[in-house]
Amino acid sequence: MDLVMLGVLMVVVGLLLVVVEFFTPGFFIGPVGAWVAVIGALLAINPDFTLQYFYIIGPITGFISLSVVLYVYLTIGRPEKPVLSQYEVVGKIGLVIKDIDPNTLDGKVLVNKEEWSATAEKPIPAGRKVRVLRVEGVHLEVEEVEE
């Protein structure tokens, strides 16, 4: 296999790794894929120059690829902070997604994009906004918010 074809193959594999990272973030193969794609492109364009100065080109393109992918990941792809404790849930406004009946835990509310079982003193139909009063174990006690 000649070096130009190897470069093209590296571009394809590198871009595939970036796409995999995009759809399943957290494995951190995106920066590696970006680096492999850039080195592959340079190798396909000018194999002799790339191989002769790889000790300079490799680290520089690696740093640039890592920086760009990290910037994109941290600004565009930053996930919303999940609710981790009862102290962060109390007082939040949520949306009833399944009717709340005071005698059961079948009711469901959506708070910060997380689904919780909920109960209330009065029945609350789906589609209404509620405020979290307290956390009881793994379910919420809520009250309807008047709009």
Write down the Rg: 26 Å
Through-space gap between termini: 69 Å
How many beta-strand segments? 5
Largest β sheet strand count, sense and barrel closure: 5 strands, mixed, barrel
Low-confidence stretches: none
Which shape, going by the Cα principal axes?
rod-shaped
Domain count: 2
Q: What order do the helices and strands follow? A: HHHHHEEEEE
Total helical segments? 5
Strand content: 15-25%
Strand order of the largest sheet: 1-2-3-5-4
The proportion of residues forming helix, as a percent range, comes to 40-55%
Please tell me the overall pLDDT.
Answer: 86
- Which structural class do you get from the secondary structure elements? alpha+beta
Task: Explain the overall architecture.
The protein folds into 2 domains: 73 residues; 59 residues, Nucleic acid-binding proteins (OB fold (Dihydrolipoamide Acetyltransferase, E2P)). Helix content is 47%, strand content 21%. It contains 5 helices and 5 strands; from the N terminus they run αααααβββββ. It has a 5-stranded mixed beta barrel. It starts with a helix and ends with a strand. The model has no long low-confidence stretch (mean pLDDT 86).
